[in-house]
């Protein structure tokens, strides 16, 4: 005998039948201060996201009550900036916790679809030269078009047997490779790498490395810390500086590299789902990777709208695994070593 099963709609139970879209929360009914405190972004920025993502979030649904794009975006922003599906967040916009989860998934995918629109290196020579000029003005390091580093974001264990996501601190994480400009805008983001991979291995296997090895942005380079190996397109600090020129080079390198460290702190401060304060992301590695990328897209959009990258209160990101110890093998890349020596001789002697 077949047993009938009734599927309950959480929002229908809460609010009953009515309009086809669930839009109980109205942006115009609250203050800017409330929006900033609850969702982390001002009114005009949220309106822009509604315009940008509205078509993707209005796809046909089999549910009796579709949730409006505006409500979906508020739900997702609430999760990204708080790091939890708190009941009060759903209550504030009139949806259940289950619907909150669906909204986060929808908005995340809509942002990921647009990642290449907002995260990219400049394409024209004038913009590339402007990058070099801005970095040179910071600490006197010439030829730099970006700063590269990795950051770990905690995720739940995929399963008991899979150790590929366990980092050096014994935590499950994704090791995310990013490159930023002097303003903190992200130009490369790769969020899919397992936490067990060391930074140098992530870079070696990355699309970023393939692009630079193929000759993208010749006569330019990135700056990376000592967790990476010296390359013709990647300048690293000297392990043991000896001459005044080497000390000056290392000081300029450190001052320039600090830009991405501040960017990471700001990213994790604005998007608390990344900093581990509410626990690890409770998703599969793939979905967690998409959430991190979605936050990076929002980070860049906020910069385009004049929201200062350094304006968020600085709180530390998830405690990072200790910096890996490497044999110092820079001299094996003789051409890269020659370029660095020439750089120090020309600009730091």
Automatic annotation (TrEMBL):
The keyword RNA-binding does not apply. One of its GO terms (molecular function) is nuclease activity. Pfam families: DDE_Tnp_4 (PF13359). GO terms for cellular component: centriolar satellite; cytosol; nucleus; plasma membrane. The keyword Nuclease applies. It is found in: Cytoplasm; Nucleus. Its main location: cytoplasm. Its cofactor is a divalent metal cation. Residues 148-300 form the DDE Tnp4 domain. Keywords: Cytoplasm, Hydrolase, Metal-binding, Nuclease, Nucleus. Belongs to the HARBI1 family. Transposase-derived protein that may have nuclease activity. Does not have transposase activity. This is Putative nuclease HARBI1. The lineage of its organism: Eukaryota, Metazoa, Chordata, Craniata, Vertebrata.
């Amino acid at each position: 005998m077949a047993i009938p099963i009734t599927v309950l709609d959480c929002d229908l139970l809460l609010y009953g039948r009515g309009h086809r879209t669930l839009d109980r929360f109205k942006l115009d009914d609250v203050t800017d201060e409330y929006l900033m405190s609850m969702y982390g972004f001002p009114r005009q920025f949220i309106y822009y996201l509604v315009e940008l993502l509205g078509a993707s979030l209005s796809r046909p649904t089999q549910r009796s009550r579709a949730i409006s794009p505006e409500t979906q975006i508020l739900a997702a922003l609430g999760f990204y900036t708080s790091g939890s599906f708190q009941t009060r967040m759903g209550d504030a916009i009139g949806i259940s916790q289950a619907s909150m989860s669906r909204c986060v998934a929808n908005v995340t995918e809509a942002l990921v679809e647009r990642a290449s629109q907002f995260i990219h290196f400049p394409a024209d020579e004038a913009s590339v030269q402007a990058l070099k000029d801005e970095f040179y003005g910071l600490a006197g390091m010439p030829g730099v078009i970006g700063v590269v580093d990795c950051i770990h974001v905690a995720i739940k264990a995929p399963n008991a047997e899979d150790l590929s996501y366990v980092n050096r601190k014994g935590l499950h994480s994704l090791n995310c490779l990013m490159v930023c400009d002097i303003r903190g805008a992200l130009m490369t983001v790769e969020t899919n790498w397992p936490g067990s991979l060391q930074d140098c291995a992530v870079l070696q296997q990355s699309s970023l490395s393939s692009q630079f090895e193929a000759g993208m942005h010749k006569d330019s380079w990135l700056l990376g810390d000592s967790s990476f190996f010296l390359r013709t397109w990647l300048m690293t600090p000297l392990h043991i500086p000896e001459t005044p020129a080497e000390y000056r080079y290392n000081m300029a390198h450190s001052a320039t590299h600090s830009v991405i460290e501040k960017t990471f702190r700001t990213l994790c401060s604005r998007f608390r789902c990344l900093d581990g304060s509410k626990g690890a992301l409770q998703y599969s590695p793939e979905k967690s990777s998409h959430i991190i990328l979605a936050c990076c897209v929002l980070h860049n959009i906020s910069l385009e709208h004049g929201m200062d990258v350094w304006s968020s209160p600085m709180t530390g990101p998830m405690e990072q695994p200790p910096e890996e110890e490497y044999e110092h093998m820079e001299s094996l890349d003789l051409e890269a070593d020659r370029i660095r020596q020439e750089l120090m001789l020309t600009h730091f002697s």
